[in-house]
Amino acid sequence: MTDAKRLPPLLKLALELGPLALFFLGNAYGDRFGFPEGQRIFAATGVFIVATVIALGIGYLLVRKLPIMPVVSGIVVVVFGGLTLFLQDETFIKLKPTIVNTMFGFVLLGGLYFRKPLLQIVLDSMFDLTEEGWRKLTLRWALFFFALAALNEIVWRTQTTDFWVSFKVFGIMPLTIAFALAQTPLLLRHEIKKAGEA
């Protein structure tokens, strides 16, 4: 039986970042499509929902499976983005990162409590770590997700909508990449060496 197909890294990145980029552009240039300045977030939200669904669909067509985290995030985008458009209340789309990151944090902590590091399931194809390594990495990611949720709450409650959109697109992703890179020493310490690699 052949290994499950995987998306090329650049295509995977494009499918993950594409909807965010369109969300930013929709908010920046929504006025060109008849949306007044205070209403551009609704144009951006509509674009974000459609782009997210299309990105998930393309990913599924290419590899015939959907990763857990993008699916959960996509569902929340559709639900809370839909509420934003239906009720004309931007609060719902601003809450999306808080809800998703808090959910991921609690799910990871719950897995640790039941001695099932769920991060291992999500990243198993990428890393081969000791049990202690998976525990530590899972705890760190759980705490990071909580930190992102708190940061999102601070930003959307204290800053303008335009600033929040820019933070969502140009703040959260670099922070996540930096955090992931910062875990490299832990990964190297707890990596299980295959035969012949020692």
- Tally of separate domains: 2
Mean pLDDT: 86
What is the β-strand count? 0
- The percent range for helix content is over 70%
What is the N-to-C succession of helices and strands?
HHHHHHHHH
Number of helices: 9
Q: What is the radius of gyration?
A: 19 Å
> What gap, in angstroms, lies between the N and C termini?
29 Å
What percentage of the residues does DSSP assign to strands (E)?
Answer: under 5%
Unreliable residue runs: none
Broad structural category: mainly alpha
Largest sheet: none
Shape: globular
Written overview of the protein:
- The chain is an all-alpha fold and 198 residues long.
- The chain folds into two domains: 88 residues; 103 residues.
- It is globular, with a radius of gyration of 19 Å.
- Helix content is 76%, strand content 0%.
- It has nine helices and no strands.
- InterPro entries: YciB.
- It is a multi-pass membrane protein.
- This is Inner membrane-spanning protein YciB.
